[in-house]
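Database export, one record per block. Field names are fixed; values are copied verbatim from the stored entry.
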Amino acid sequence: MSGKKRLPKSWRLDDFLEMEFGKLTPIVEGLMHRGDRVVISAQAKAGKTTFLHNLVRCLADGGKFLGRWEATPARGTVALIDTEMDPRRLQD
C-alpha cells in the first residue's frame, strides 16, 4: 500500500440491525467472547502484567480466570508478545 489508511467497514444503522452475525462464543464466561478486543488499563504496578499472564494461561489451558470465570481453551495457538518481562519471569 502507499501509506494511505483505510476506514473501517461501515453500514447504515437500519442495514446493520438487519444483519445476522451468528451466536457470540464465550472465551471467558461473562467477560470476553471470541473476536473481542480487550484493553487493559491501570496505574503502574496495579498488576496488569500478572492479569494478562493469567489470562494467557487460561486461554492456553482452560480453567477459571482469576479463580472466578470459566475460560475455554483456544482452538489454535495462543501467542504472547511481551517486550517488558525477562523470559525467566515469564516462564515462572
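Remark 1: The chain is about 25% helix and 10% strand.
Remark 2: The mean pLDDT is 89.
End of record.
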